[in-house]
Amino acid sequence: MKPLLAGRPLRRTTSSGRTRTGLAIDLGSARTRAWAPGHGLLVDVPTMTAATGKRPVRRGKIIDRAATAALVGELLKSQVIVERRRTVVATIPITSDEVHRGHLLAVLDVLGPETILTIDTVKAAALGADVDMTEPLLVVDIGAQLTEVALLAGGSLCGARCTKLGVRDPVSSTQIVQEIVESTVQLMGECGPQMVDALDRGVLLTGGGALRPEITYQLSTQLGATVQPAPAPQSAAVRGAALVLQAAHRHPSAF
């Protein structure tokens, strides 16, 4: 079986060397990250309005569309990218409903894109970690207020669970791990053979929670499986969205 993690540099320009317009964005409950061609990671700041100090995104969902749009606009006005962004790729939680999706599209419209693409956060994180996605893969993404457990096979989502709990909540690591284990057991009942293969291969841990070694240790002990944090796990999702952006530039007809 191929190793869980490999290594591949993220290209900043097209093959011709010309910088392309576009933006990859991961709008999280705690932090917002954006990646742009020719610049790399452009923004990595708290998801918080400057005027009121309030957080317009909660549990992965936009609760104040106007404030979030203003936040996104202000963040990018302060950066070097001012030209029209032809394509914007954004991560989105696996449990997002049409209301949240509509809010997200409206927020990103302030950037004036011609095309907006979305990708599940867990899938983006796996892409950003540069794992082989042709084989079954269990991804655990632990954010500030949301934890997602997803089984991917052949790059497609086979099953997923989400719990409204994260590392910014006043709970112990043990409680977070227990929620992950329960989600894994539920997925085992739905996707048995593929889950067995995924656990044999090892669990990919992403998000800010992957920076906490006690979570890695406890989860590995509870599941009886190898648990591998992604490189720079807190930014894996935006790196994955950036790879989708690059693919959209190279093969626009596919999107």
Task: Give your account of this protein's structure.
Strand 9 and strand 10 (156-163) form a beta hairpin. The model is unreliable at 11-19 (pLDDT under 50). The strands form 3 sheets. A 5-stranded mixed beta sheet has the order 3-2-1-6-7. Helix 1 runs parallel beside helix 2 and helix 4 (173-190) crosses helix 5 (192-201). The protein is of the alpha/beta class and 255 residues long. The protein folds into 2 domains: 23-120 and 235-254, Nucleotidyltransferase, domain 5, CATH 3.30.420; 130-230, ATPase, nucleotide binding domain (Nucleotidyltransferase, domain 5, 2-Layer Sandwich), CATH 3.30.420.40. It starts with 22 loop residues before the first strand and ends in a 5-residue tail after the last helix. It contains 7 helices and 12 strands. The chain has helices at residues 65-77, 98-108, 121-128, 173-190, 192-201, 213-223, 236-250, and strands at residues 23-27, 31-36, 40-46, 57-58, 61-62, 87-92, 115-120, 137-142, 147-153, 156-163, 203-206, 227-229.
Kindly summarize this structure in a few lines.
The chain is an alpha/beta fold. The protein has helices at 65-77, 98-108, 121-128, 173-190, 192-201, 213-223, 236-250, and strands spanning 23-27, 31-36, 40-46, 57-58, 61-62, 87-92, 115-120, 137-142, 147-153, 156-163, 203-206, 227-229. It has two domains: 23-120 and 235-254, ATPase, nucleotide binding domain (Nucleotidyltransferase, domain 5), CATH 3.30.420; 130-230, 2-Layer Sandwich (Nucleotidyltransferase, domain 5), CATH 3.30.420.
